[in-house]
Structure formats: structure tokens, C-alpha cells
């Protein structure tokens, strides 16, 4: 029997992580999704520090997926459908660098895919404004406090800025 390929990680920031996590959890091929923080200057940031803008972390969702069931390109396309990638450091009513549109890539292949999807969206003139999504190397992921995990399942929703897809 041939061993199945290992699960892979993907990390996306698209504004408030509650809606992003909710959408990714429901995506076929996604095994797990956690809300958290990445891209900042300090270890183990707290939600309060993030909200104060003290750390430069983005609210992100770390997605574990089965590449036999969903491709990374599909996840990137899904990411672009759930938020407005033309808003700099904001989504809907939420503003600040913690709400920036960012893809943290875990490999050169992921970088290539993310950049190709962005080029395709630009060529298709999908958005009237320029895409401001940044593609960066993956940074340490810090899982958000437990009350942020599965927020909509615990508290009702979705009511976040993300598009419910």
C-alpha cells in the first residue's frame, strides 16, 4: 500500500479571524482550522496586545488540509472569495494592521501558487481597486485564546465581515 501524502498547512489573514475560520472549517479537504496570530514582533501575543497594535501580528487562520482532497490553489481562490483584498489594513468596520490581507506561505510552491492566483485576478480585472494582499514567508503561528476558536459555533453567527461561502 502506498502511503498517503502528509497533511499540509496554509495560513491566511483576511480580517477578523472568526469568519475566516468558519469558512475554512466548512471547506472540503480541510482537516482543521485554528484562529491565531502571525507576522508580528513578539512571542505569545495576546488578543489585547493585537488589538492595541503593539505587536504587528495579523489575525490569521492556520489551515491543515489534505492535498489529496483539496489543492492549495483552491484554498487560495477560496481565501480571495471570502474578503475584499483591496482594502489596506482593514475589512469592513475592522481596521488596523491586524486585519491586513496576507498569505503566509510554507513553501516556495505555495508562494508560486499564491502569486499566480493574484496575477490571474489582476489580469481578469476582478477588482476595481488594486489588490493589496501581501505574500510572505510563514512566521510562527500563535493560537488565539480558546474563546476565539470556533467562535460562530459557540456564539451564533456568522456576523463577521467575511462573505459566507
Q: How would you describe the overall organization of this protein?
A:
It is a single chain. With 165 residues, this protein is of the alpha+beta class. It has one domain (8-154): Peptide methionine sulphoxide reductase MsrA (Peptide Methionine Sulfoxide Reductase, Chain A), CATH 3.30.1060.10. Helices cover 28% and strands 24% of the residues. The protein has helices spanning 17-25, 47-52, 72-81, 108-123, 151-155, and strands at residues 8-14, 30-38, 58-65, 90-91, 94-95, 101-105, 134-137, 142-143. Strands 7-6-1-3-2-8 form a 6-stranded mixed beta sheet, with helices on one face. A two-stranded antiparallel sheet has the order 4-5. Helix 4 links the parallel strand 6 and strand 7. Helix 3 (72-81) packs across helix 4. The chain is globular and about 50 Å long. The termini are far apart. The mean pLDDT is 93.
